[in-house]
Amino acid sequence: MDRKHVMGAGLAFALSAALLSACGPSEKTNQADTENAALSGPVSGQAVLDLFLGEWDCEATTFETPGIPAKKETIRLAYTRILGGRFVEESGEGGHGLRLFTYDEQKQCYFTWFFSQYVQEDIAEIGHWDNGTRTLDWTRVPGKYSTMQFRFPNKDAIECDVRLNDDAGNAVFKADYKMSRTKEAGAAKPFDLESRGIPPDFTGERRVLDQLLGNWTNDVTLRTLSPAMDEKHATEKQVIRRVIDGYFVQQNAESSLGTSAMILYAFNPKSGRYRLWAFLSDWGGMEVPYEGTWNAAAHTMDWASPAPGEYPMTMRHRFSGDDAFDYTFWVKDPGGRTVNEGIFKMSRVGGKPQTSMGPDGTSPPTSTTYRLISIGGEPVPCSPLHEGQRVPEVSGGSMTINSDGTFSGGIQFTNPNIVVPGAANKTPGTYTREGDTLTMKHPGAGYTRATISGDTFTMDNEGLLFVYQK
Fold this sequence. Notes:
Layout: H1 3-16, H2 31-34, H3 46-49, E1 54-62, E2 71-82, E3 87-92, E4 97-104, E5 109-116, E6 125-130, E7 135-139, E8 146-154, E9 157-165, E10 171-183, H4 204-207, E11 214-224, E12 230-243, E13 248-255, E14 260-268, E15 273-280, E16 284-285, E17 290-295, E18 300-304, E19 313-321, E20 324-332, E21 338-349, E22 367-375, E23 378-379, E24 385-386, E25 389-390, E26 394-402, E27 406-413, E28 429-434, E29 437-441, E30 447-453, E31 456-461, E32 464-469
């Protein structure tokens, strides 16, 4: 089998998360061999990416561009190796973005992808390392659209500039970052990207992907039809969840063959199509995402590459109910003959996630309302002490947490003439959730942290604890 045929099959396995490659056993980066090599002296290959590993405080300066306001903030970032060590993942506290890095040994260059509610990468960015200046420079093909440079002045500092332009050369994103190490590589853990709620403006088209959510087992059959017949079988455990403020669906798969994969799905409202990016421990990542269309009448989703190449692959998801679906891929040779195919049968493990809805998107979200019982340890009504001063007497309050990722609530003062801006005046907002911890975003204000324990909801507002109960 020639190399192009092998790559076609490998890509198909990535998309299916079957993780059975015609290239043989999984290739894994030995992190122990490279972890210390990147800290001083000349480095190359995967060792360059070890410069990122660890946890960092990042001072981010975002400049105003159309649709994006100027702001300065400090965020916490973690860089860890995933998928057998082939990729480095950048995750941020709060789960608002994801960046992946890898090194392609054959092409001898680096690739990176970034995903957030504002960005869906049309194409991977290509990076080149300069040992003399200790810089990692990135551009998008053909190069004029995006530039990004990482500088590594020492092992405990990273600087980065990002400039993103549209096709006409207009700036659409501009930011500078300065990072200081807080944890070494071995002590860093990735931040959870899961979003248990979804933005309130999501349409039925976005909600189609909810059919994928949950825990699954996958029975896999892969067939090579040409030049010789061969058949392989495997099983998988898959976890599929909404991540990155709910704008993406992430499929994580672990195969019985010891390989792993991450697949990201999203809906692009500009094109009206769905997108799919695959990242495989024994293969690599997709330079161009696949595009999909949804057939509501047939309950199917069809996928194809916008740049199919010599060995094009197509794939179809077919949904037959809440607890099962299947998908099939086909790889064809230049003559149009099918040379590879795969059949994947997914069975749900456990119940359907709370955020799941049917493809019409009409199921109403659930809500839980909590009543304010104390502020700063003082039972309501009270005049709590905050920063050395007593605030006006609070007579009561409530907080409603919706399953769609929104919340609303406020407090009432004994004196009805008192007006307090922000969350105290029933301003609605959005939240992301990691286990029992919520990160709450108030419009026009910053973030607050809250926890849910049984029937108790506790919100930390600048060190002042607001305790609510059902």
